[in-house]
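Q: Mind making up any chain with structure tokens?
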Amino acid sequence: MTLTDPRITPARPDLAADFLAGTVAATRYVKARERRIVAASAPLRREPRPDAPLDTEALAGEAVRVFEEEEGWAWAQLAGDGYVGYLPVSTLGAIEPAPTHRVAVLRTFVYPGPSIKLPPVGALSLMAGVAVTGFEGDFARLADSSAIFARHLAFIGPPLADDFVTIAERFVGVPYLWGGKTSLGIDCSGLVQLALSAAAVEAPRDSDLQERALGSPLPITEEFTGLRRGDLVFWKGHVGIMVDSANLLHANGHHMATVIEPLAVATARIEAAGAGPVTSIKRL
């Protein structure tokens, strides 16, 4: 990572974060306002328009630093991984109350009250954060008076699993979505980041940043020998997770889904498609 990487540096020619004054050039510098994602998920886009490329998604409960709001878009930085881009203002709310719990299953419904017979008012994906104010029977009441099945939640802090691969395996069959980070759609690096986060391991958002930051390098052998569960396999612009010594779990555009397949099959196909060979293998 570098300070000037626009993905993680809140700086434009006309505006930058106040803490960058003297480091990057900008017309003016502003102090961020702390906000929080109140939608189930929020698209963070490269430009302030709905058809701009999706760079990543922020989940409910995530803290956000907002530097500018204009015409329905907030130029902001995600507090968790530092990603910078444009979020719809409608997805943002007050920084308080802070989440007390997070969703511990792939997806769960949000109800207007503590009953499975009520029509759901929404749904939240794995790792979304919620502020629980109390419990009624099998349900947790949230700060906005809605309710979620309590056994689908876990306290924020302890890991959901020690083995992050078990988290990633839950996403098998989930559609591939460039920039996605939810159970409705996810990309290769989003899967790695989300699964590691559930195991209390911080990771950057994009595969090139992950390749630099995560783990220790392993030798790349012709037959990919010596690999084990949890090893990360990187290509230029792609990453996958080994589920055992021979099989790779990854969200990918060939299947347009999250799949498990032999590493040998994946490497041959990816290289034949012109994406190049494996660039590194990392062990956490």
